[in-house]
Every structure is written in structure tokens, then in C-alpha cells.
From TrEMBL:
GO terms for MF: oxidoreductase activity
Keyword tRNA processing carried by entry: no
Name used for this protein in its record: NAD(P)-binding protein
The species this protein was found in: Cryoendolithus antarcticus
Sorted UniProt keywords: NADP, Oxidoreductase
Amino acid sequence: MPDQVKYNKLQGKQILIIGGSSGIGYAVAEASLEASATVTISSSNPSRVDKAVSTLKSAYPSAKDRVSGHACNLGDESSLDSNIETLLKETTKNGKLDHIVYTAGDSLASMKLDTIDMAKVKQAGMVRFFGPLFVGKHASKYLNAGPASSYTITTGAVSEKPIPDWSVVGSYATGLQGMTRQLALDLKPVRVNLVSPGAVATELWQGIPEERRQGLYKSFADKMTTGVVGKAEDVAESYVYLMKDYNVSGSMVSTNGGHLLL
């Protein structure tokens, strides 16, 4: 008789992580594999997906048959809807999903308010806002029905504490809070939740010169009660929690090192 599985609720589950080739999404993939789930990661760059899958297989050799990847471009308005549905179809050829996690993002897009135009505004929201909305459009067809299944979206601390020159991205980030609550109604009984990370040391910052990047990390840490910038493997725990707690829906978990208190 097998041991009862009561708390490791991810064992044997099928999880799609959109944005899973790097950063927080990659850490969620690691955590999911360690919990004995089957994981598919996706991002816009095929070579990056292949590299991430290879790295995960090397790091978790016993899980090499439980990890795969599919590229999906979320940055093109004309193909966004069809690309998402293709990804979901490809991911569910052998059965429906139990969880979808959306951590995809693109380059940090702060911009002076007097420099914006409609093209810039739309592009800034393509991956951050319209992507998760269109995943929600198709999710019910590809997720197992019931509260054991979930869709978890990602916003940012700018949705809770405004930052100068972030009016565009901040508006999308705040809008994701409303989107989450609405999708939780429209997709019920599947659960929909949101994670709001503060500053996290990920590849997103790699384009900034090292000296300036370390200076930014220090400035962030000085404004956190923890005194340290978040690590992806710690923030990933918020996503694991939201997948495992069948009683939470329409809610947001904020993981920000105490930044909102200072």
C-alpha cells in the first residue's frame, strides 16, 4: 500500500510555467521538479528554452523524463492569441494540465510620462498584461476542472507602491490585481491567484553594468526590513503555496522583503 500523499500535492501533477526558462519561473520549475511534478517550461526564445531544459535535466537527472519545453512568442499582437492556444495544445497532448504559472516578462520599461505614445503603451503591456489575459481566455479548456487546479499570474511591487516614471507599467501591474479577481470568477472552480514580488536578483538585471547593478541591489536592500534583495528560490515558494492550497482563489501573495514597510 503506497504511503498517503497529503501535503506533497504537486506529486504527479502537470505544470506549465510560461516564463520558465529563467529567473523566478526557472526557480518555480526547480521547486516543482523537486516536488515530483512534471514540468513544461516556455519562453519566447527557443534556444533559451532548450538550454533551460538541458540544465534542469542535468541538475535533476532522476526527473529528466518529467521536464520539457516549448517556445512561445508573446510579444507580437497579431499572433499572441494563436501562439498561446498552440502552446496549450502542444503541452496537453498527453493529458490536461493541473497548474499554469505565468512569470513571463520583458525588459524593464520605465518611461517618462511625456514620452509615451500608443505604440509604446501597447507594447509595454503585451507580455505583462495581455499575455496573461489571453492565457486565461483558453485556460479552462486545458486545465483539469476543480479547485485542485490553478492559474497563477505575476505582477510586481509597483502595483502596491508607485515608483516615479512607472505610470505605464504600474498601471498594467495594478490592473493584474483586478484581472486575477475577475478570472477567479470566470474560471471557477479552477483557482486563479497572483504573486507580487519586490526586487529579486534575476537575469532581468543582467543588462545593467555590474557596478551599477550592485549599487541598485544595495539601494533596494537598504529599503527592506530583511536587509537583502530577494532570491528567486525563495520567491518561488509563493507559487508553490498557491498551487497547493486548494482554499485560496482571487488572492495576491506579496513577497517583497518588507519593502512596503519602509
